[in-house]
Specification:
525 residues; alpha+beta; Creatine Kinase, Chain A, domain 2; seven-stranded antiparallel β-sheet; three-stranded antiparallel β-sheet; 18 helices; EC 6.3.2.2; Glutamate--cysteine ligase
């Protein structure tokens, strides 16, 4: 353990400071496809009973009309966050009738590209902007790739904790600037060590063969309808034969917040020749994409972790970060565990807390001398062959066995887990850590190994297994319906969201072309 980590842990262990570790905030966003009773993509519109996908605070859609996204609020106790996520699932199942929620991250058999429905958000300008943005994603990357689902884990440390560390260091910057610099440091460490999360929680070593659409790939055939890699942990996070040439040159610098926002600003304002050739509208004047830049908007940048700040009305994410700094981080590389009804459980959440706190407190020098490239190479190696016996990664230019490095990291993260248990009572973080140490010692315990083992033992294809799990989880949620009061509360939110969308549509007076032009200009101000 570094001297700096030891010092910071000792500081936080002092009785007046220890309660700060119970004030970290958590939030979860879980995506999942709606499917019909055969496991095919649901072609029905977003259920009106679930409210407006544009304005509902907890139930929306991501890329496709069939790709639901459930959003919890924030809570200091991850158990409360998961309880809210559970309630959203149970409410949704109460409204779905003869549809199911697909359990894994990778989709099953999909219809032809042209038939995959892009999410609709109504006739308001902001609703149309969200739809055209998704049309642009289809044009640039194809619709199939956008049907992959994941879990996003939002995490923040209390501002008082940052102030304590800043005072301890004698740092004279504005608190906002110090806090942003420390979140960026957390992100740098996350990039160094996130391969560990893919080993421990990757759950997509196989996929339906139709997903590749006849594209060249290096996957092996498990059966007639299933492709896989024998040692893979998360094919979802591999390139899967898809390359974004436009984003290939976009590697935001994580030295500080300003260099990060500058690189994204450049990407959303710099035309990309291939997209320029497509244009923004077709011959009939219908919109194809919002613009022809490297990124249409900031969120198009595919990253494993993002610095975030809650936006105000009409404000763009980059504007919020520049004006008020980083408020929390969003981890975006987590697969949905198809063995778990929610796709994530308390053990994983508690380990993530210890891991992220470790990334925040551990020394985090700037990424130099090819370390950025090596970190990315380690990550990609683990997603495609992370369980391979004797696998080696690169650390400081030297080969190191994954198992050895993982053991060292878990020992250091264990110090953080112990402090979290000291702050909150009990030994739940230590238990969560022990579960991960067991996976490092025995790779057959990882979700990716368990999934492949289930396929081989049952003789099922990936899609047959996934449909069976989806039905099991549907039964789990439908056997525990919400109370009448809980349902009424959700119903009220759904109805309010529909009314809000109607109000927004009625209030729009500006034509859409002018609205888009103004939206593009907003970053230049």
């Amino acid at each position: 353990m570094s001297d700096l980590l030891s010092h910071r842990l000792a500081l936080l262990a002092e009785p007046p400071n220890l309660p700060l570790l119970s004030q970290c905030l958590h939030g979860i966003e879980r995506e999942c496809l709606r499917i019909d009773d055969r496991g095919e993509l649901a072609m029905t519109p977003h259920p009106r009973a679930l409210g407006s996908a544009l304005t509902h605070p907890k139930i929306t859609t991501d890329y496709s009309e069939a790709l639901l996204e459930f959003i919890t609020g924030t809570a200091t106790d991850p158990q409360q966050t998961l309880a809210e996520l559970d309630a959203i699932h149970r409410y949704t199942y109460g409204k779905l009738a003869d549809e199911w929620l697909w359990s894994p991250s990778m989709p099953g058999h999909l219809p032809e590209e042209a038939q995959i429905p892009i999410a609709e958000y109504g006739s308001s300008n902001i609703g149309r902007l969200k739809h055209v943005y998704r049309q642009g994603l289809a044009l640039r990357y194809g619709k199939t790739m956008q049907c992959i689902a994941g879990i996003h884990y939002n995490f923040s440390l209390p501002e008082t904790l940052w102030s304590l560390l800043q005072a301890d260091e004698g740092d004279q910057r504005k608190r906002q600037d110090y806090q942003s610099s420390r979140y960026i440091a957390l992100i740098r460490n996350f990039r160094r060590y996130s391969w560990l999360l893919m080993y421990l929680f990757g759950a997509s070593p196989a996929l339906d063969s139709s997903f590749m659409r006849g594209r060249p790939h290096q996957l092996e055939r498990l059966d007639e309808n299933t492709l896989y890699l024998p040692w893979a942990t998360s094919l979802r996070m591999s390139d899967l034969g898809y390359q974004s040439n436009a984003q290939a040159g976009l590697t935001p610098c994580y030295d500080d917040l300003s260099s990060y926002t500058d690189s994204l600003h450049k990407a959303v304002s710099t035309p990309y020749p291939a997209y320029a050739a497509m244009g923004t509208k077709d011959a009939e004047g219908n919109w194809l994409q919002l613009n022809t830049n490297v990124l249409q908007i900031e969120n198009e940048y595919y990253s494993n972790i993002r610095p975030k700040r809650v936006t105000e009305s009409g404000e763009r994410p980059l504007q919020a970060l520049r004006a008020r700094g980083i408020q929390y981080i969003e981890v975006r590389c987590l697969d949905i565990n198809p063995f778990l009804p929610l796709g994530i459980d308390l053990d994983e959440s508690r380990f993530l807390d210890a891991f992220l706190l470790f990334c925040a407190l551990e020394d985090s020098p700037c990424l130099v001398q090819g370390e950025c490239g090596a970190s990315q190479a380690n990550f990609l190696k683990v997603v495609t062959e992370g369980r391979k016996p004797g696998l080696e990664l690169q650390r400081c230019g030297e080969p190191v066995a994954l198992q050895s490095w993982a053991g060292e990291l878990l020992a250091r993260i264990g110090q953080v887990a112990a402090l979290l248990d000291q702050a909150q009572g009990g030994d739940q973080h230590a238990q969560a850590l022990a579960a991960q140490q067991a996976k490092v010692a025995d790779s057959s315990l990882t979700p990716s190994a368990r999934l492949l083992d289930a396929l081989k033992r049952s003789g099922e294809s990936f899609s047959q297994f996934a449909l069976r799990q989806s039905r099991l989880h549907a039964e789990h949620f439908r056997q525990q319906p919400l109370t009448a009061a809980e349902t009424a509360c959700f119903d009220t939110a759904s109805q309010a969201s529909l009314a809000q969308q109607t109000t927004m549509e009625a209030a729009d007076t500006q034509d859409f072309d002018s609205f888009v032009e103004e939206y593009q200009r907003s970053l230049m101000a």
